[in-house]
Write a structure and sequence with these properties.
- The structure holds two protein chains of two kinds.
- Chain A is an alpha/beta fold.
- Chain A has a single domain, classed as 3-Layer(aba) Sandwich (Rossmann fold), CATH 3.40.50.
- Helices cover 30% and strands 29% of the residues of chain A.
- In chain A, the strands form three sheets. In chain A, strands 11-10-9-12-8-1-6-7-13 form a nine-stranded mixed sheet, with helices on both faces.
- In chain A, strand 3 and strand 4 form a beta hairpin.
- The longest helix of chain A has 17 residues, at 39-55.
- Chain B has nine helices and 18 strands.
- Chain B folds into two domains: 8-180, Rossmann fold; 207-330, TPP-binding domain (Rossmann fold, 3-Layer(aba) Sandwich), CATH 3.40.50.
- In chain B, 29% of the residues lie in helices and 26% in strands.
- By secondary structure, chain B is an alpha/beta fold.
- The interface between A and B is large, with 78 and 80 residues.
- Strand 11 of chain A pairs antiparallel with strand 13 (192-199) of chain B.
- The complex binds flavin-adenine dinucleotide and adenosine monophosphate.
- Flavin-adenine dinucleotide sits between chains B (217-219, 243-245, 257-262, 274-276, 278, 280-281, 294-297, 300, 313-315) and A (16-17, 125, 127).
Amino acid sequence: MQILVLVKAVPDPERANEITLDPETGTVKREGIPLVINPLDRNAVEEALRLKEEKGGTVAALSMGPPAAEGPLREALALGVDRAVLLSDRAMAGADTLATARVLAAGARYLGDFDLILCGAESFDGGTAQVGPELAQFLGLPHASYVTSAREKGGLLEVEAKVEDGRKKLQVRLPALLTVSRELNRPRGLSFSGIVRARGKKVEVLSLADLGMDPSRAGVAGSPTIIGDISTPTTTRSGEIIKGDPEEVVDVLVKKLTEAGVV
Amino acid sequence: MTEGYRGVWVFVEQKKGEFLPVGLQLLGKGREIADRLGEKLSALVLGRDVKDKAKALIGYGADEVLVVDQPKLEDYQTDLYAHVVTELVQKERPSVFLLGATYNGRDLAPTVAGRLETGLSSDCTRLEIDEEGRLVQVVPAFRGMASILCPDRRPQMATIRPGVFRLPAPDESRTGTVREVQVDLETVENRAELVELYLQEPEGKPLEEAETVVAGGAGIGDLEGWKLIEDLAQVLGAAVGATRPPLDEGWAREDQMIGQSGKTVRPDLYIGIGISGETQHVVGIEDAKVVVAINNDPGAPIFKVADYGIVADYRKVVPVLIERFKKLKNTG
Ligand SMILES: Cc1cc2nc3c(=O)[nH]c(=O)nc-3n(C[C@H](O)[C@H](O)[C@H](O)COP(=O)(O)OP(=O)(O)OC[C@H]3O[C@@H](n4cnc5c(N)ncnc54)[C@H](O)[C@@H]3O)c2cc1C
Ligand SMILES: Nc1ncnc2c1ncn2[C@@H]1O[C@H](COP(=O)(O)O)[C@@H](O)[C@H]1O
């Protein structure tokens, strides 16, 4: 099986509280926060590696991002993917989900034919859950989203996916794209031998020109949505701080809540 | 690229022939938007044997209900639904298209947006119309709110979580039309076919209906601490809510998350413990009557959106609270 897995480089979730939004440019500021593989993309990588171990074939990892996104791709190599490709170009910056999906589609086509494309259901920092299904449209592939289990059987994928209050079972024709949920598997950790093996491999970097893509189709230029203004929410609550030792604060709080009639 | 696009559409999802509340909530919001634009509001319904029920949507604000009633559309299936919706959008050209952010809605919306190559914003918490008549899609961003616009492509698409907008009171006297449309599905390949649906009854009283909510965040630290949150909720008869980190840690379930990508709650009392107050969380508690925050960092943003704040280690305060409420209950 030829598998492509998408890897988005996101700021380390452990340090997410350092991320802010630049009110001037409307872009997310994450300077100094290391980039890691988007958490659900780790599940996607895991599934790809497991399928490869079971059925043979190759796994390629693809990302669009700044040069620093090489880090997470190196990590994917150390986890065991055969090939890692970074689509990076100034003209790709500021892309919304549609422009991102369009560029990733060009990257996927450039790399060849795949039986299966795996990506995360949602990214940690964008969280739109759009890139997967949009990419499937650009590639003309069927897809299933929020997948919790997947099994290949006679050229078809038997898939379970989330719905409100339950699950659904689907039969998906290959080639296909799946967006994966956390429940799918438990991602493996990095091994020493994996890290050593990855040292000999390189992350391939491709530009828009390499993809033969018109800059007007990528980045800000290729994005139908724009970010207008950024506002800080205004509050109408008093923010009264109750001081004292635990017994005192609880006394005051319970009194206030009782007066307000909410307990 | 925006010429000739008029009208506001709401996709009203049905499950086993019943309309999901989020679709009705969006008709309420859609009505406001359509009035502001001076355009028509249409509800779009796909399903099997749904024609007769479709009329009810007029009472919720629709001027027109577009119904595609075919056996193959009984349950949501990506290829079939996306084909029908894309074809109708191309033919009828609405300017605004809103969908509920259910699992199916979050699958359908990007599939259609991808095919139409138009803009889509997800999990909006506010929708407005600007002076130029464009849809302003407001989403929480880190420490702020971002307005998203789709200036040059149509329709302007957005998904909205259940509970963000209130259910409008149905008005039986409203008039409107039901228009059945046929779409040929014979030649459409159903490449991701539904085999089975397994649904469970949701357990307990839903968080969004609770009168008291006790919510915990990353600051709870461990499962033992989480137990303290649940104990406090129990003595208060409250539902337990969470921010995102407790889900990732496995202390809380997905359906307990409050915020932009989770639930919107409207309790009389919300007590947030070990929660920093990031915008993506607090958009979900804006309508709480009284907000209490317990956090050991005096600079935590949650204190700015609270009525009462306690700057302390929750491990010291929560046990005292539990004892006090226990006593109150016994004497009460
Ligand atoms: C697109 C997108 C959508 C999102 N949607 C949601 C959503 O719907 N809901 C949601 O909640 N989040 C959402 N998030 C995540 C959100 O941005 C924050 O990361 C999250 O809300 C932070 O949770 P927290 O306050 O529990 O954690 P933190 O920000 O880590 O805060 C923990 C707090 O606990 C305090 N603390 C630590 N120890 C103690 C102690 N012993 N006693 C008392 N206080 C203590 C700390 O001072 C700190 O303020 C979303 C993010 C994105 C990008
Ligand atoms: N820039 C990117 N590079 C590679 N994959 C991406 C990128 N953006 C999104 N994805 C993939 O799409 C998934 C959903 O992202 P999102 O639509 O942002 O929630 C992610 O989990 C990734 O697998």
